[in-house]
Write a structure and sequence with these properties.
Elements lengths: L6 H7 L9 E11 L5 E7 L9 E2 L2 E3 L13 H13 L7 E8 L10 E9 L17 E5 H6 L6 H15 L16 H12 L5 H13 L3 E8 L6 E6 L6
Parallel strand pairs: 1-6
Antiparallel strand pairs: 1-2, 1-4, 2-3, 2-7, 5-6, 8-9
């Protein structure tokens, strides 16, 4: 990096401790659609004050280095670390994206803390591979409906609501949908996943027309075999591996 005239001298004399500054945290909203078609979120019970004993989103402080040359980890690296620690899964198999920065004064009673939140989508097929870190009895999947009705630490209710709204916004225009169903799925299973996110019942005819458009555009394709149902075997589909929709 090219240094401007006098910049080296300025940096040598600069005293970061002369300025008040906030701490930075990274919180992750880990979402999945469970077997009963409920949108669920991964929560951890806090073992320490503040909010001791209260359920919260997984997260922690950004690791900061001891010097100018070693300034610590990047935000995205911190999000990946938290995801791997809390689920045992990596972004190679889980959708992970930055959500929003939450910096309202007073959101943390200890000090001024700005949280950069991320959201992750765990496909149902991968749920058996989830290995929560720490005390497993203090980690649980909770329906988003129940989580919203209960108490969450800090401003995690706001973060959770923001994440669900983001997923709902992007459901029909991005690759998010592929992370809400298994590797193969039926039309009703995909519709149920959409309904779990949006919280709305979808018209079967309208949804089928949208689904057929996905098939015609090559986003979704037929998969081998059929799924046994209460009435008759149903055709199964999968997202095309090269699809960006």
């Amino acid at each position: 990096m090219m240094k401007r005239d006098g910049e080296q001298q300025f940096l040598a004399q600069y005293r970061p401790e002369d300025f008040r500054r906030p701490s930075v945290a990274v919180d992750i909203v880990v979402l999945t659609v469970t077997a009963n078609a409920q949108l669920s979120v991964l929560l951890v019970r806090r073992n320490e004050h503040p909010f001791k004993g209260v359920w919260a989103l997984p997260g922690g402080f950004l690791r900061v280095g001891p010097s100018v040359k070693d300034q610590g980890e990047d935000l995205d690296a911190a999000a990946v670390r938290e995801l791997e620690e809390e689920t045992g899964l990596s972004p190679d198999v889980v959708f992970l994206d930055q959500l929003h920065a939450f910096g309202q004064a007073g959101r943390d009673p200890r000090m001024r803390v700005v949280s950069v939140a991320y959201y992750a989508l765990v496909p149902p097929d991968l749920l058996p591979r989830v290995r929560p870190g720490g005390d497993a009895s203090q980690v649980r999947w909770t329906s988003v409906t129940a989580a919203r009705a209960g108490e969450l630490a800090f401003d995690h209710q706001i973060i959770l609501t923001t994440a669900v709204a983001r997923v709902a916004e992007q459901l029909e225009t991005t690759a998010i949908a592929r992370s809400l169903v298994g590797s193969t799925f039926t039309i009703p299973e995909l519709r149920a996943a959409f309904e779990s996110v949006t919280g709305k019942k979808l018209d079967h005819g309208n949804f089928r027309r949208k689904f057929n458009a996905l098939v015609l555009s090559g986003v979704v394709e037929r998969a081998p075999g059929k799924r046994a149902t209460a009435s008759k075997p149903a055709a199964v589909y999968r997202f095309h591996p090269r699809s960006d929709a």
